[in-house]
Amino acid sequence: MTTTTATALTVHLEVDDPDAARITYAAAFGVGAELSFRPAQTPTSGFRGFIISLVVSQPGTVDSLVGTALEAGFTTLKPAEKTFWGYGAVVRAPDGTIWKVTTSNKKNTGPVTRDIDQVVLLLGVDKVQASKQFYIEHGLTVAKSFGSKYVEFATPDSPVGLALYGRRAAAEDVGVAPEGSGSHRIVIGSDAGPFTDPDGFPWEPTSD
């Protein structure tokens, strides 16, 4: 067991054209430091097993980010709407990555901004408890846990948070079928790596 914690989580997306993806994501969300892009054409089909969530302060910010995402070539999986938990939308990037833009607030409380409060990588896993234990054994600390449904890890010094959700529940949440095969087309960079988790998500050491 390692005692190192994941303090610098980075998401590396494998895409056909890294330069084009970089431009697309900058136009859509203004994200940069949280993401890295690598050239890859590995086969993949269906749900890739992960979602990236942008947590913001109010509905107007959701609408603004979703609007520019659609202008940048994203497609809608779930239109923006009020839910039991707040307000949010789900869109899919041209490279196939699924993004959820959400807020816990149902009403605007101030001027609309494009500020992103938190970026969270949500991994859809077959067995939440088994994956939770695997990550604990690799040095991560649990911040929140709701039985076999949801786990959130403590990443206080990271630009990206990490959570686990059941694969079927995650797919249902974003409006896609849970089936998928081939590459996840994602690599997670962290000082907790290198390893591959029980669901096939590869981790590698963070570059200095």
UniProtKB/TrEMBL annotation:
SUPFAM superfamilies to which the protein is assigned, alphabetical = Glyoxalase/Bleomycin resistance protein/Dihydroxybiphenyl dioxygenase
Q: Where is this region: Disordered?
A: 187-208
Ranges annotated as spanning the membrane: none
What InterPro entries does the database record attribute to this sequence?
Glyas_Bleomycin-R_OHBP_Dase
Q: What is this protein called?
A: Glyoxalase
Q: Please report the organism this UniProt entry assigns to the protein.
A: Nocardia jinanensis
| UniProt lineage | Bacteria, Bacillati, Actinomycetota, Actinomycetes, Mycobacteriales
